[in-house]
Amino acid sequence: MNRLNESIRPSADLRNHYNEISRQCREKGDAVVITVNGRGDTVSLGYEEYKRMLARLELLELLAEAENDVMNGRVAEVQDTFESLRSVLKEVK
Asked: Would you state the pLDDT for residue 5?
C-alpha cells in the first residue's frame, strides 16, 4: 500500500510560504501537516492525491460491505447474479 510522505509545518508557513507548500503537495504528492501551537491542526494534500485517496476509501468501504454480506449469508450464485443484471440491462434499453 502506498504510504504518503508527510512533512510538518507551522501555520505561519501556510500564510508565508503557500506556493512552496502547494508545490510540495502537487509535485511530490506529500501530505503537509499544519500545526498550531505545536499540535497537528490540518493536512494539506494535492488535489490528485486527494481524489486517489477518496477512490481507495470508497473501494475499501465496498469491500467491507461485501465481506459483511458474505459473513451474514447474503450471497447469491454467480449465474443468478448475471441473469439478474442482464434482465435489468434489457429493461434499461
From this structure: 93
